[in-house]
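Narrative summary of target 7.
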Amino acid sequence: MVIAFLFARLTLLSLASAGRNGTLSATIFLPGGIVGTLHHLYFSGTPTMVLARGSVFSALEVVPLLFVGQPAALRLLEPERRAAGDGRHQPAAGRSDADVGGS
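Modeled conformation, tokenized:
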């Protein structure tokens, strides 16, 4: 949530995207936090299924960070790509990539 706020203040991320990612973070962290700690109970004889569920929820904690970081990184690198002429194909206005093919 803090990273989304900082990226929004630096104009690397839109406020709407930061808000969506904040909601996603809360949705994953709040219910998954308790379940996610169960992967630490290996030596106490916890059943394998409980350890597996804890591991999955613990691994999901990085998903909101990826959703925040990817658009911010693309926006940060946009001027460099435009200046370097990255060679990406840009279809003509009003045409999609499917229309550009050989028909």
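The chain has one domain: 2-76.
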